[in-house]
Specification:
The protein has 8 helices and 4 strands, in the order E-H-E-H-E-H-H-E-H-H-H-H. Helix 1 links the parallel strand 1 and strand 2. Helix 4 runs antiparallel to helix 5, helix 6 runs antiparallel to helix 7 and helix 7 packs across helix 8. It has 2 domains: 128 residues, Resolvase, N-terminal catalytic domain (Rossmann fold, 3-Layer(aba) Sandwich); 35 residues.
Length: 199
Amino acid sequence: MRKTGKIYGYARVSTIRQNEDRQLQALEAAGVASENAFIDKQSGKDFERERYKALLDKLRPNDVLYIKSIDRLGRNYREILVQWQLLTKELGVDVVVLDMPLLDTRRGKDLLGTFISDVVLQILSFVAENERANIRQRQREGIDAARSRGVKFGRPRRELPDNFKEIAAMQRAGFITEVDAAKKCGLPLSTYRDRARRI
């Protein structure tokens, strides 16, 4: 029987505002000690993540890595497959995806078990990336629809003082500096420069 090494867990949320507690609770229930849980708070579009890289440095053959769901590993279909190969084949680590029992490399070490695991992984990775593309498409459509209704995005433009043109003309003529002109208008220097350039 194959000897089991250390147990690790990996969790990821897309932004620092999102909460990883649900993932950490699932990892803890699976037996992952808090000091062996690695958490990244950034997008899953690629694997340039500080804590994920630190995890790879720790992993040794026969270790077990728990992940709540495949999209927590990443959202790029091809890169998920590359990382799966790195973890299971090159590093010799077992990977357990808690939300998908078929993705548990401790089971079915024979050819059929490996085949089933690889097929399920490819399907789920494709679904994860496809959903990411769908989200982007829905966001684009929502923004386009809002713009067509006259919705403006970004910060509202600052109102200019009534004497803005006169102050800008004085500054262009060299009577006052840009800094003085911005102060007289009650605007940040960068905003003053931008608006003065437009008139």
